[in-house]
Structure formats: C-alpha cells, structure tokens
Amino acid sequence: MPHLELRDVRAGYGALEVLRGVSLAVDRGEVVALVGPSGSGKSTVLRVLMGLTPLSAGQVSIDGRPVDFRSRGELRALRDRMAIVFQQYNLFQNMTVMGNVTLAPLRIKRWPRAEVEAEARALLAKVGLAGREDAYPDELSGGQQQRVAIARALALRPEILLLDEVTSALDPELVNEVLDTIRTLAAEGMTMLIVSHEMGFVREIADRVVMMDAGEVIEAGPPAEILDNPRTERARRFFGKVLRH
Amino acid sequence: MNYSFHFDVVWRDFDALMQGAWMTFQLGVLAFWGGALIGLLGAALKTYGPRPLRLVADCYVVFFTNTPALIQIYFLYFGLPEAGIRWSSEACVLIGLTLNAGAYLTMILRAGFLSVRRTELEAAETLGLSVLQQIRHVIVPHIARAIYPALANFFIVILVMGTSIGAVIGVDELTGQAINLATVNYRWLEYFTVVAGIYVVLTFVASIGLALLGRWAFRVRARIF
Ligand SMILES: Nc1ncnc2c1ncn2[C@@H]1O[C@H](COP(=O)(O)OP(=O)(O)O)[C@@H](O)[C@H]1O
Ligand SMILES: [Mg+2]
Q1: Which of A74, A111, B43, B79 could be stapled to B110 by a disulfide with Cβ–Cβ 3.0 to 4.6 Å?
Q2: Which CATH number is associated with domain A4-91+143-150+158-242?
Q3: Helices H, strands E: what count in chain B?
Q4: ipTM reported for the complex, 2 dp
Q5: pLDDT tens-digit map of A166-210
Q6: What are the start-end ranges of the H helices in B127-165?
Q7: Mind telling me how many Å the CA of A235 is from chain B's nearest CA?
Q8: Strands A16-26 and A4-13: what pairing?
Q9: What residues are in contact with ligand 1 under a 6 Å CB criterion?
C-alpha cells in the first residue's frame, strides 16, 4: 500500500483547471521526483496535498485512508504527518532562525521547550547551520534560508516531506549544500515527493520519476527509463531541453 | 534689532510651563493610543469587513482626514453644547484628536494589513497554526514592523501639532500655558523661545523612546534623527 497516493485529482484556481486528473503514488521511504515544464501543475500538486488548494474531484489517500480536506480534524492530522518546503522558503521574517524552527513544536505540539530547542539545534546542525540560531532570515543567504525552511519542516517530525524546487532560487554554489541535506534525508528513509529541475540530482536520488505536462501525468518510472528513454514525444522534447544545458 | 530679552520672568514660570508640557504629553499619548485602537478596528473593517461596514470606515476616514483637526475640535466644543452635551475643553481636545488620529491610523494600519505576505500565512497554515495563532505570531508582528516608522512619525505630529490646538479653546497644555503667561507680562518672544525648546526636548525624548521600543519589540531599525 502506498504511503501517499493521488487518484484522478482535479484542482485549479477559480475557473482555471490546473490539474486534470492526476494520479501518482509514493511508497513508504520512497523518493519520487516530480518533473515537467513550468506551469504544468507541479506546485499545485503539492498545494493540494497540504490542503492549501482545494481539489474539485479525485482522492488523496495516506496509508490507504482517504483524506477529507474539508474536515478540520483530518486536515490537522494530515499536516501533522506531512510537511512542505516552499520554493520561496516562506520563512517568518520577524522571527529568528530558532523562532522559525521552534514555533510550531512549541505552540502547536506544546512539546517541552528544552527538548524542542535541543532538537532544533540538532536539526540546524544537520543542515549545516549550527551557530546561526539567533540570525534573522534577512541576514542569511538564499541557500541558508532554504535550509532553515527544511529544518522548520523537519522539526514537526513529519513522515512525508514535500519539496518544491528547493534549489531553483539558489546560486549554483549553494545548490550542493541543499542537495546534501536532501541526500541525508533520503538515506534515513524519509518519504519524499520532490519537484526538481536538477536532472543530475533527480537521477541520483529519485527511486522513481513522474513527469507532468499541462496538468496530467504523462510518464512515470525509474529515472533511467524516463530520463534516457522517454516514450512520449512531449517528454522527449522536455528532457531534450533540460538535459542540454 | 534692539529688543532686549528678559528670560528671568520665564524661568520664574518654568514650573507652570512644565505642567503645560506634562499636559501636552498626556494628551498626545492618550489621543495616539485611543486613535490606534480605532485605527485597528477601522483597518480590520476596511480589509476584512463586509461591504456596508467598509463603507462606514471609508466615510469616517474621508471626513476626518479631509477637514482640519481644529474645526473638528471646534465642533465638539461649540457645536455639542447646542445639542445639550457639554464637555470640558480638555475632553473636547482629547476626543477630537483621538477621532482625528483614528482616521489617519486607519490608513496607516491598513497599509500594514495589506503588506502581510500570503506566503508566510500559508507557511503558518501548513505548520498547523490556527487562525488566532497566525494573527498573534505572524500578522501582528509583521504589521508592527511594517508600519512602525509611519506610526512613530504620526505620534510626533499628534504630540506637537495636534495638542497645541488645545490652546485656542483654553486648554493649559504647553502652548496654551505659554499664551496665558505671556498675556500677563508681554514677554511673548521669551516664552515662545523657551516653549519651542521644550517641544524639541519633548519630541526628542519621545523619538528616542519610540526608537528603543521599536528596536526592542519589533526589531525595527529606526533612526532617531
Ligand atoms: N494562486 C494561483 N492563482 C491562479 N493561478 C495560479 C496560482 N498558482 C498557480 N497558478 C496557475 O496554475 C498553473 C500551474 O501552476 P503551478 O502548479 O505553479 O505549476 P508548476 O509548479 O509546474 O510551474 C499555471 O498556469 C499558473 O499560472
Ligand atoms: Mg512551481
């Protein structure tokens, strides 16, 4: 049974239908890369999963249990188990790094402060930010902010992590810092759905690749298969473009 | 120029002037915070309220920002007694200034409301924060930080320009007190020189206080000058 599954999910913004029947599944401990041209609906898939964009049809299941996004309780339970790292970090600008990472564990989980702070320090060390606990987001580089966002997501001990183009806003020399962090998480068995344009990274880290175009999944399979021998013309064109540079 | 300054009379009345300064300070602080409460309500209504209430807030803002504070206070002082309501001159100034400040602060706070980043709210939401928790931990600190400079400026405006209107209806704030004293011995120039100095000190102290508060509470990098 997949850890996370979408079946025929449709969603959009107002009259604009962005997802036109998306189905995909991620097994426990599996790393799935979601790739596709810009505007194809990758971010919307992640937004639907987090309950930020409502789905108009279809179903999302976790451990085989369908999620009712309209139920506050189920939504809370879902956000308990699943965390997202946004492309633009979305850190709280008025809080320190420590404040960002500990806010939810302290205020929502009401875990003891000493424990939460110790864990936050450990997480920050893990993402290479030991010693920057008291900095504010605007004092950090993009790569550092991105890693704070990862630490913040991990502080709630999620089972599933969604990552949205976590390296696309970064300078090339910062990309590796973030990718290292993700490699570590993958090695530790975290279930992950990763939107990425870094095909080298996708090839290395993903167990499976799902390719989207215009709100539909057009191919899915192991990286070697999808990246090297795409079956559809649309996929061939996309990878032709991405791989060339 | 052959005017000879005689500051000795002013120093003799220094206590009275300080009482005036204290009155000025009280009026300024009370009108500002009263106005801030009104402004918070007004901005919330303008941003999130239903249409009729938005309209009420709009009318309030338009009326009070497009007429002089002096006229508003005259209305309370000379107009209300006709309707059988008689307030002391201090009350008229305080209430008039508060209503006036409320209108300006509605606009300032509204700009703050609009500057809250949707992305931060979405992050808060996905972390599981309730709406109330989002207001407390994300929205309010953000607004405070965004509008702090405008807020601090406006406090000085109220403190110096707003309160001195009280003089015209006989409130013994700093300007009024100086007028009272000068009419006795005609040392206008001396009194107003000293009074100007006291205003400068008052705003200076208020600015430092506000800058420190801003740095400490909201991490605003406020400049004092
Ligand atoms: N908040 C929004 N409101 C309206 N349209 C949106 C919004 N977010 C995304 N879209 C539209 O939805 C489509 C898919 O967007 P997105 O899911 O972000 O694609 P991707 O992440 O693959 O680039 C695009 O056409 C985009 O313009
Ligand atoms: Mg996107």
Answers
A1: B43
A2: 3.40.50.300
A3: 11, 0
A4: 0.87
A5: 877 667 776 777 788 888 888 898 999 999 988 888 888 899 999
A6: 131-134, 140-157, 163-164
A7: 31
A8: antiparallel
A9: A 13, 16, 18, 36, 38-44
